[in-house]
Amino acid sequence: MPAEIDSNALQTVFAQSLPDGTIEEPYLQYLRTVGARRSILLLAFAPKAAGTYFRQAAMYAINGQIVRFSHAQGGRDGTPYLPTVLACYLDDNMPEVISHIHMQAFPSNRHLLNAFGIKPVIMLRNLPDMLASFRDMLEADALARTEGLNCLIPEGFMRFDYHQKSEFMIDVIAPWYASYFATWKCYADEEPETVCVLRYTDFCTDPAKALYTALTHAGFFVSLAKCKDALARVWGERKKHRYNKGTSGRGATYFSSLQIERLSRLLSYYPDLDTWLPDLVDDTTAQKRRALEMISA
Questions:
Q1: CATH number of the domain located at residue range(s) 7-296 in this protein
Q2: What percent of the chain has pLDDT over 70?
Q3: How far is CA 289 from CA 126, 157, 247, in A?
Q4: Is 191 exposed, middle or buried (0-12, 13-18, 19+ CB in 10 A)?
Q5: Is the Cβ–Cβ distance between 58 and 98 less than 8 Å?
Q6: DSSP sequence for 103-139
Q7: Quick one: DSSP state of residue 58?
Q8: Which one, 54, 69, 134, 253, has least CB within 10 Å?
């Protein structure tokens, strides 16, 4: 049975928000009322932070359904699409809802999530490792090259030499990641009870606990045992879910020490990120790269 679209829903969908995305009354109160009808797990992970793997495990843990919140997947830098989100709340027959969107925490996106009471989850992972995994995906998947990451992947990308590909990842792809983490750090600092911040290192050590933390944060009642069972099931299907190597420290073999320093400089434009730097560009990665360069010299 499709969602029931009444006059309140129609008026809210077509009401224009303020330029910063602020939703005015009476539409804000309507969305708050609708948002209280169910919990939704929103994984706002950056690309290559184990999001596809994680969302599948969450789906098994709560018998949920994956819903694409953005209007379209192309470009990957997603923005929640109000009609789709609203429909999830209005359809009483829809299973538990899980959405995975590569979304920056811009004010307009925050206003929409807060209106519904959605409590997003993000994952911190070493940035050189994510860029290494992203590069692998671009080389292996023609579809990924058509989607990019808020950018156009050049037609000649596959003809780039090793150094050119690394430079492209640093110059074009990495700035999106710096902005992404900066926007989420701001959101998490201002509303720590709303944003759940997971760490990839913790996820690798105790994946069931990370999954349990995300689900309970979003408002679901689930046991740790159920999370363990779900992860065991998805592990057997990992090749289907874009599971790459998942190995920490790979970025040091893909990028030079100078390139890693440029990554650090990108992040330095956002001083608020200082407490997250050990997760994003740690000293171990830089030291490992310098050691490799000394060996090959």
A1: 3.40.50.300
A2: 91
A3: 14, 25, 15
A4: middle
A5: yes
A6: ----HHHHHHHHHHT---EEEE--HHHHHHHHHHHHH
A7: H
A8: 253
Using one digit for the tens of pLDDT, what is the confidence trace for 187-233? 999 999 999 999 999 999 999 999 999 999 999 999 999 999 999 99
Cis peptide before 26 (omega within 30 of 0): yes
In the sheet with 121-124, reading across from the earlier edge strand, the strands are 64-66, 96-100, 40-43, 121-124, 196-199
Residues contacting 268, CB < 8 A, separation 6+: none
What residues are paired with 99 via a beta bridge? 42
Assign 76 a pLDDT band (cuts: 50, 70, 90). confident
> What DSSP string runs through 203-233?
HHH-HHHHHHHHHHHHT----HHHHHHHHHH
d(CA 152, CA 150): 7
Query: How far, in Å, are 109, 132, 210 from residue 205 at the CA level?
Result: 31, 21, 9
> Which tokens hold the place of 227?
């999370």
pLDDT at 242: 56
Q: Which amino acid is at 119?
A: K
Locate 112 and state its tokens.
């929409």
**Alpha carbon distances (Å) from 208 to 64, 169, 225, 290:** 17, 32, 8, 35
How does 218-235 read in b/e, with b if 16+ C-beta sit within 10 Å?
bebebeeebbbebbeebe
DSSP annotation of 193 reads: T
The residue ranges of every structural domain in the chain are: 7-296
